[in-house]
Amino acid sequence: MTNRADPFDLSGRVAVVTGAGSGIGRGTAQQLAAAGAHVVCADVNAAAAEATADGIGKAASAAALDVTDRAAVFALIGNTAEEHGRLDILVNVAGIIRTGRVVDVEVADLDAVLDVNFKGTFHGCQAAARIMCAAGGGSIVNTASGAVDTGQPEIMSYSVSKAAVVQLTRNLAAEVGRFGVRVNAVAPGLVRTAMTERHYLLPDGGVDEAARAAAEKPLRRMSPLGMIGEPEDIAHAVRYLVSDAARFVTGQIIRPNGGVAMPW
Asked: Do 119 and 129 reside in the same domain of the chain?
């Protein structure tokens, strides 16, 4: 039932967040826990997942998970539902990027990106949807990208994988709505995460502020808000989508992107 006093409250709900070891995944796990949910923080980097869960506290637990391992994804999601007696939320954030011009992309690199970004999301959707449909409700949020709305050089593999996530989201939403399950996606614009900061990180892990300013200056000009996003900006959108405030929202692609793209 809808919590009419506070439709954003997630108390008593159970969530799994993949890619929770850093960036948008970590920010999302923190947001959902702050709203009252118990969050399973899953990441291929076990230490990073533990760090996220430890930072949250009692409302979180950690799990090592390679989303390309279908059996492992099903096991984690199934075990979570069994342990807690429910599964209310799945947020698929885990993703990678490989760059290269279309004419130069190696098939192995394309396969690697599709395996994580698309198939990893598919595995999670399939496992969670089976449990949620049987239970009569739940919310799945997938992570697409602002790259699905524009043509950009050297990120074909990434863009194609995220476009596939968009269509997966729509198709699944059309199939499971009658069971009370909602499926949506976020398509972030440029956000400060490890994926974007690779362009100006120093060998010791620090940030070259001059290089960052130079890299971000033209990107800020593209945004009507003149902003570069932070992980929490995307996490707030996810919190809305999984909450009762979005009870009438499914099959949608929410674009927290600073206004860089404004598709119909």
From this structure: yes
Range of the domain at 222: 192-228
In this structure, the answer to whether residues 23 and 154 fall within a common structural domain is yes
* Residue pLDDT, tens place only, 125-146: 999 999 999 999 999 999 999 9
Token pair in block for residue 232: 């929490």
Are the C-beta atoms of residues 38 and 80 closer than 8 Å to each other? no
Q: Report residue 199's pLDDT band, with 50, 70 and 90 as the boundaries.
A: low
pTM, entire model? 0.93
Only one residue has tokens 């990441």, namely 43
What is the DSSP code string of 141-168? EEE--GGGGS--TTBHHHHHHHHHHHHH
Catalytic residue among 118, 122, 158, 240: 158
Asked if 37 and 155 sit in the same domain, the reply is: yes
Contacts of 76 (CB under 8 A, 6+ apart): 16, 40, 42, 63, 65
> What is the pLDDT at residue 203?
76
User: Active site includes 158?
Assistant: yes
Residue 9 lies in a domain: no
3-state DSSP call for residue 230?
Answer: coil
Instruction: Indicate whether 203 and 184 sit together in one domain.
Output: no
